[in-house]
Amino acid sequence: MDYRRLGASGLKVPALSFGAGTFGGSGPLFGAWGNSDAKEARRLVDICLEAGVNLFDTADVYSNGASEEVLGAAVKGRRDAVLISTKTSLPMGDGPDDAGSSRSRLIKAVEDALKRLGTDYIDLLQLHAFDAATPIEEVLSTLDSLLRAGKLRYVGVSNFSGWQVMKSLGLADRHGYPRYVAHQVYYSLVGRDYEWELMPLGLDQGVGALVWSPLGWGRLTGKVRRGEPLPEKSRLHDTASFGPPVEDDQLYRVVDALDAIAGETGKTVPQIAINWLLQRPTVASVIIGARNEEQLRQNLGAVGWSLTSDQMKKLDAASEVTAPYPYFPYRRQEAFARLSPPAV
Fold it and tell me: Where would I find the NADP-dependent oxidoreductase domain in this sequence (predicted)?
């Protein structure tokens, strides 16, 4: 397993990490993903550790805390061998302090997560969404206190816009608060919006990407193809409305290219889609999920080899879409291109 520095931090994370959204799954979204109990989860953790995958990602909102509980049980007795990443800020109830990143909410959320995980520290805490109602200085000072207390090791964010990340980093530098070193983002061959602003920001500011849904919300599994109906057992029947939308034409262009490269390499469509991400700038780790051992072992096959430059170019071309203003001039016009860094 390849290990990479997480942003500008000293923390090294595996190229592939495991997403525990399938642990203890319940409800219309997480129940469709999977519902591994502690015994099943422990077996999946065993396989991950054997392969060198030691970063496990979860969130308090995943099945209302059940994912954290099952993950905690699955890593019990080997806490020092794993890195735990969790997230908070999304609503955990209907009360006024059950959502957001206020001082009171963050302190309580961290204490609750520690109990569910059965640990006394979290390796990486990420804010699951930007809280526009709480001053950024309050958020950062609270995270600083939690770091100084030893309850957190590193901090990051998820699903932030460029200005939200940059303003937070600027205030962190001004006041001497800890900087965000990770941004957990949606990024895939059918969702390349991350490249327009967040990737250049990550390169400039030392913020590493942890990629969620690398298979385009289940569309790049190799089971969705042009001219064929959606498989009867596909979870997209129940979960498509929860995830990022994809135009059919774009999807099938990408799938056709993936199929062609699968024929050349002997690799599976998911393995190729993940390997493409691993060669993209700022990507520190790609979060893979699995409902069972077979799925996990297949996804683990995405490392240990690399797509050729020609294959990367084919996938780049098949997945490219016109960027929105103000990003498109930098790609289309020579005058703008002269002011821009080399394309990534």
Answer: 16-319
